[in-house]
C-alpha cells in the first residue's frame, strides 16, 4: 500500500512538473509575442536598475494583487457568474504570468541575494531535477514526450514556424 501511494504521489508530482513547465513555456512564448507589439525594452531596463529590496517589493505587490484577484474571481464564481469568474482567473494567470516571467528574468540575480529565496530556489531546482530523472526513466513518460514533440512539430508545421535550437 505504501509503495502504491508513493508511486501515485510520484506520478502526480510528475504531472505537476509537466504542467508547470508547459505553463512557463507558454507564458514565455506569450511574453515574446506581446513584445513584438509592445516594446518592453524600457521596462526591462527599468527593472534591471532596481535594488534587491525594490525587486522583492515588486514581487510582493504582484503576488498580493494576484491573490486578491483570485479571491474576486472565486467570489464571482460563488455568486453564479461562472464564466466571468473563470475569465478573470484565466486573464490573471496570463497577464500575471507574463509579468512574473519578465520580473524573474530581469530581477533574478537580485532576488537570489536573499538567502531564503536562494535556498528555496536551490531546493526547488534539486527537487525538479530528481523528478525529471525519475520521469526520464519511465517508458510511459518517454512515450508522452515523444507524442508531445510530434504534436508540437505538427503545429509548428501548420503555423510555418521553425523549431528553435539551443
What does it look like?
The chain is 87% helix and 0% strand. With 166 residues, it is mainly α.
Per-chain topology:
Elements: H1 2-37, H2 41-48, H3 52-78, H4 82-111, H5 115-136, H6 139-159
In short:
The protein is an all-alpha fold and 166 residues long. The protein has helices at residues 2-37, 41-48, 52-78, 82-111, 115-136, 139-159.
Tag the structure with descriptive keywords.
single chain; 166 residues; mainly alpha; 0% strand
Count of separate DSSP helical elements: 6
Q: Any idea what the shape is?
A: globular
Helical proportion, percent range: over 70%
Radius of gyration (CA) equals 19 Å
Alpha-carbon distance between the termini?
43 Å
Low-confidence stretches: none
Please report the total strand number as a whole number.
Answer: 0
Largest sheet features: none
Class computed from helices, strands and strand pairing = mainly alpha
Q: What is the mean pLDDT?
A: 82
Strand content: under 5%
Order of helices and strands: HHHHHH
Amino acid at each position: 500500500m505504501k509503495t502504491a501511494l508513493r508511486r501515485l504521489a510520484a506520478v502526480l508530482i510528475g504531472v505537476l512538473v509537466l504542467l508547470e513547465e508547459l505553463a512557463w513555456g507558454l507564458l514565455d512564448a506569450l511574453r515574446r509575442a506581446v513584445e513584438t507589439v509592445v516594446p518592453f525594452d524600457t521596462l526591462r531596463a527599468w527593472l534591471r536598475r532596481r535594488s534587491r529590496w525594490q525587486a522583492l517589493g515588486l514581487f510582493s505587490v504582484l503576488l498580493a494583487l494576484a491573490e486578491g484577484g483570485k479571491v474576486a474571481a472565486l467570489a464571482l464564481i460563488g455568486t453564479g457568474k461562472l464564466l466571468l469568474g473563470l475569465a478573470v482567473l484565466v486573464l490573471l494567470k496570463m497577464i500575471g504570468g507574463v509579468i512574473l516571467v519578465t520580473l524573474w528574468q530581469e530581477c533574478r540575480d537580485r532576488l537570489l541575494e536573499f538567502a531564503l529565496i536562494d535556498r528555496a530556489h536551490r531546493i526547488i531546482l534539486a527537487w525538479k531535477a530528481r523528478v525529471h530523472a525519475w520521469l526520464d526513466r519511465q517508458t510511459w513518460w518517454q512515450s508522452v514526450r515523444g507524442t508531445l514533440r510530434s504534436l508540437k512539430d505538427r503545429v509548428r508545421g501548420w503555423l510555418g514556424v521553425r523549431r528553435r535550437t539551443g
